[in-house]
Amino acid sequence: MNAADKKRLLREMLFARRFEERCYEAYVERKIGGFLHLYPGEEACAFGVLDAARPGHDYVITGYRDHIHAIKCGADPKEVMAELFGKETGSSKGRGGSMHIFDAKHHFMGGYALVGGPFPLAVGMAKAIKLKGGDEISICFLGDAANNQGTFHESMNMAALWELPVLFVCENNLYGIGTRIDRSTAVIDQYKRVHGYNIPSAQVDGQDIEKVHEAAKIAIEHVRGGKGPYFLELMTYRYRGHSMSDSNAYRAKEEERMWGKRDPIIILRDRLIEAGEISMDDYKLMDDEVLEEIENEVIKFAEESPEPKVEELEKYVLGENDPYVRGGAR
Amino acid sequence: MAVIMYWEAIRRAHDEEMARDPLVICMGEDIGVVGGTYKATQGLYDKYGPDRVIDTPISENSYTGLGIGASFLGVRPIIEIMSVNFAWLATDQIFNSAAKVRYMSGGQLTAPVVIRSPGGTAHQLGAQHSARMEKVFMGIAGLRVVTPSSPKQAYGLLKSAVRCNDPVFIYEHELMYNMKGEVPDAEYFHPLEGSEVARAGKDLTLFGYNISVHWCMQAAEQLAKDGIDCEVIDLYTLSPLDRAGIKKSVSKTHRAVIVEEAEAAVGVGSEVMAIINEECFFELDAAPLRVSAANVPIPYNHHLEKATIPNAKRVVETVRKMFGK
Ligand SMILES: Cc1ncc(C[n+]2csc(CCOP(=O)(O)OP(=O)(O)O)c2C)c(N)n1
Ligand SMILES: [Mg+2]
After folding, report:
1. Which ipTM value was assigned to this complex?
2. pTM for this one?
């Protein structure tokens, strides 16, 4: 990763951080409703992996903590915010909400709310890629606790059995809502769990984007090279509660402080400053620009966009004018 | 009689049953240390310990199956599934194991398990967190389905469900946990079968269950001002539905409107209409009507969501239409 890439990624991660923090505010202002799961603390995971992949080309799928993965794949942040505001201009036309960002144009195949649900979908996309002979890969981002769902094991088996081009990225933030991993899971190191399926795997520091990027490059080479699935475990931490309705009371303050010091944005920033690539003033300017863009473009667009029409409530339930509904084309 | 909240009533039933019988256990996601998403098991972990108040992994089908297996040997698990949307995943074990084991073993095995789960459409939780699944559960032979509309029912139905030797599914509602109501101070067992006259009236019967009972009660008050005297029947048992209670009320009022939070197709409304048809068709002065949700996955947008789900106003409009007003 060269200096220019690092600077670009610093800005992208900072944008993601400020985007999510602005979502928090908008939720408090009641502009955003429902369940809202934010990504601060985990930025190096999505950006490190997807920067090593081909965002917009490779197919990406994830859970409900999905805004940032969508944006990195190429979704317009304005449309993502409009979705959170429930607007017609939103990425899912206001029908999906925070947990269901979709941007098929950029091969972001969605956020899903049922824990473990995306595993088989990711494997299915990999099956389609292989069948169609494309050079894309399928990438599935999910949390640590999702690995206790039966779909995890069933999907690993099929992915390995049929040597499908799928990369599983486990964002291990040590918790599934309020339950710490050692209280829910017999095996703490998640990368070990796929060995029984002959899937190669690795565990790396998810707070250091360079390490994530490096590990992801190896993983992606394997998968794109036709050698079958790969499982990459990234050790990370979420800085906020599980969702807006979570008090976070179950985590030790000391643990939070420790991970707070391992902020992926600060780690990269300080590294760039130390190397003389940027100054603290450059960083502050970057932050100001990001904040301004979010306020003047992203939020403005979401605020000013129209609501969906109630008359169109039943649109998108089923397809329109499908000739086979009447027995075929005439 | 103390006035307590719905979640407190559920908590109290857990506590009493666990104190009485060491084989009563509870299990589910975040129910122990955290005390439950809706606080229904708050404090029980400290009181009864991790062997009886079990924080499960996110493995709905298998921990439900585990609870069912334990119940074969006389343990009485109360399983909380955090949201009915996740209960879809456990339906294999509920339907294929719990509901059938007594029958297919010729009565040798029983599955005295209680599964509690909140459903319903709360506020903007989107398509995968807003399911109303009562229609699915109530169609399964071998499974009892009850749905409390008040703290008293929530308490008494859980108490009876724990003692009952059949598997019981308790359908709760995400928006009702903070609802207050009177609960008897003395131990109380609500019948697992039947229905309740929530309001007596003579001109028309409104059938509701769970949250829709409250829409019916509000509508009845409004309609009383128009001179329409509604009876409200609370169908707290969804399986088996109370045929006698339905017949009795319709034979008295000669008109029926069924109010359900779910989509109309294959639902409580269609089932109640069929029962009316079979039991008391000639008592009717008008064709029964349903107030149901639009047949769509629940939209995130607030206005679309509101347009999807029934409310008291729509009940009032439907009744007025029936009376040609
Ligand atoms: C099938 C299912 N069960 C339970 C839930 C409730 N739930 C939502 S997120 C979550 C924890 C998931 O933790 P993890 O997979 O580690 O992801 P994280 O949120 O930590 O990123 C739970 C239990 C759900 N959404 N779906
Ligand atoms: Mg986690």
Report:
1. 0.93
2. 0.96
Residues of chain B numbered 125-154 and touching chain A (CB < 8 Å): 125-129
Domain boundaries A3-326, corresponding CATH code: 3.40.50.970
Domain B2-183 and domain B196-322, same fold? Reply is: yes
pLDDT tens, position by position, B109-134: 999 999 999 999 999 999 999 999 99
DSSP string for residues in B240-283: T--HHHHHHHHHHHS-EEEEEEEESTTSHHHHHHHHHHHHHGGG
Q: B299 and A313: CB-CB below 8 Å?
A: yes
Q: Which of A31, A121, A175, A177 to mutate to test the interface with B (most CBs of B within 10 A)?
A: A177
* pLDDT attached to residue B325: 84
CATH of domain B2-183: 3.40.50.970
The verdict on A179 touching B (C-beta cutoff 8 Å) is: yes
CATH architecture designation of domain B196-322: 3-Layer(aba) Sandwich (3.40)
C-alpha distance from residue A147 to each of A156, A161, A292, B78, B93 (Å): 10, 19, 39, 24, 20
Residue B80 has pLDDT above 70, yes or no: yes
Rounded to an integer, the average pLDDT of A90-108 is 98
